[in-house]
Design goal:
Layout lengths: L2 H15 L17 H13 L3 H10 L2 H23 L3 H9 L11
Helix pairs in contact: 2-3, 2-4, 4-5
């Protein structure tokens, strides 16, 4: 057995001991949703206090994926508002949350 073979032998055991889990076929009656669709719908439903739509959007993707999508949406929204208002991103973010330090520093 070569040196490479000895190094890879434990890995071979791991992959052969645990065969891949088959993925069930996609249900054509159920539409596919991506992370960003789920995040947009979830945030909109939350803002409109629509519990049914909130639950529906939460079921479209895994919870960690939904959290990632909501974070990405928040980042993009704050950046867009900051550009629109010609203010620093941090000032806009803090202002939206009602935190101190929301006022942009004076320009000279």
């Amino acid at each position: 057995m070569t040196a490479v073979g000895r190094v890879l032998a434990p890995l071979r055991k791991v992959f052969t001991a645990h065969p891949p889990v088959p993925v069930p076929p996609r249900d054509p009656a159920r539409p596919r949703h991506n992370v960003f669709e789920a995040a947009a719908t979830y945030v909109t439903a939350s803002a409109e206090d629509d519990a049914d739509r909130l639950d529906e959007a939460a079921s479209w993707v895994a919870p960690d994926a939904l959290a990632f999508g909501i974070n990405e949406l928040a980042c993009r929204a704050v950046i867009a508002l900051a550009r629109e208002r010609d203010q620093p991103v941090e000032a806009v973010a803090r202002g939206l949350l009602g935190l101190p330090g929301a006022e942009p520093p004076p320009t000279v």
